[in-house]
Structures are given as C-alpha cells and as structure tokens.
Amino acid sequence: MKTTFMGASTKQGYEIAAKSREIVRSLIDEKTKNLTPEERSIVERIVHSTADPEYADITKMSGDFVEKGLEAISKGKDILTDISMVKAGINKYSGNINCYINDERAIKLAKDQEITRAAAAMELAACDGFEGVVVIGNAPTALWKVMELVETGSMNVKAVVGVPVGFVGAAESKKALHETSIPNLVTEGPKGGTPVAVAAVNSLINIIR
C-alpha cells in the first residue's frame, strides 16, 4: 500500500502535498514557533486546507485540548458532528462518527422546543449517551447547546472542536467555549467552517496513526 500524505496516494500527489506543506510552514513558521509539535501540525493542516495563513493567528487551543483529544481518539471514542458535511470529511477513523441533523427525532425535537435542528441534534446525542469528541463547523446554536449540556452534566464530552462560521453568534459562541474548562479548539471571530473543523479532527486522527 502506498504512503498517503495529506490525502495524496500517488507520487505526483505526494509531491504536490509535500510542496504545499513546505509553503505553509514558511508562511506560519514565526507564528507557530511557541506551539508544541502536535499543536503546530494541527494549525498547519488547517492553513493547508483553507489556503489562509490567518488561521495561524486565530486558531486557539486550550492547554489540554491535544492531550484529551488524542486520548479520546486513541480509545476509539465516538465523534459527533453538527452537520453531515463535516461527518463526510472525517476519514481513516475506526470509531463511530455520528450526526443527528437529519434524524427524524431531532427534527421533531426542534419543532417541539422551537430550537434549531443543530441544537436539537446535540440534545438527542446526549439522550443517546454520547461520549467522545464533538466537532462543530457551522452551527453556533449547536455549540451553545453542547456547553449547556456539559454544564448540567447531561453530556460526557472529552474535547470540542468548535469552529462555527458566520456573523451571527459564531464569534460569541467560540469565545464562550474557550473560556470554559472543556478541552477545546476554536477560531476567533467569524471565520471557521467545515474545512477547518475537518482539518482539525483529521489532524488528531493522523497523529494517532
């Protein structure tokens, strides 16, 4: 089996990926010099996936994020995503990857409680006994709900990748998460989204592999 590197599986693909990583490192070297090797690899992957060096400035991790995230991944704990697109982007993981956004129960719960489906999906996951890593790339309401569920002891979260994108509630929800005791990775401001969320969790998986 051929070695893969950032999704590459052919000689040409490997060369392109290696060159891209070299460029990324040259762009963010000074910005990441105080990070651990694991933290640096996560930031590099995010910048590589977005082609945006600013993520080296706005990506913030709690001191225990890498440790707790890797511990959960190595034990095969479940991963919970806010939307199907984030779930589809996570690869080479032997554990379960769950997304309840299209679950009929979540749709009904959202209607009954007059909340977003993304928030309802988090509540449903908690009811189903979720324990593991939460990865949120799009819905601030899902992130708020996760924090609420953790605070009330209703959800056993090992770490959270909280990078919802947008101009309404995204920055506020990420700031609030980063101020909690939950092991977390966030991006400051409105930037974030599926590529960032996927890059962060895939980087953790790749470190374990």
TrEMBL record:
GO terms for biological process: cobalamin biosynthetic process. InterPro entries: Cbl_synth_CobH/CbiC (IPR003722), CobH/CbiC_sf (IPR036588). The keyword Isomerase applies. One of its GO terms (molecular function) is precorrin-8X methylmutase activity. Pfam families: CbiC. Pathway: Cofactor biosynthesis; adenosylcobalamin biosynthesis. Belongs to the CobH/CbiC family. This is Precorrin-8X methylmutase. It comes from Methanobacterium formicicum (strain DSM 3637 / PP1). The gene is cbiC.
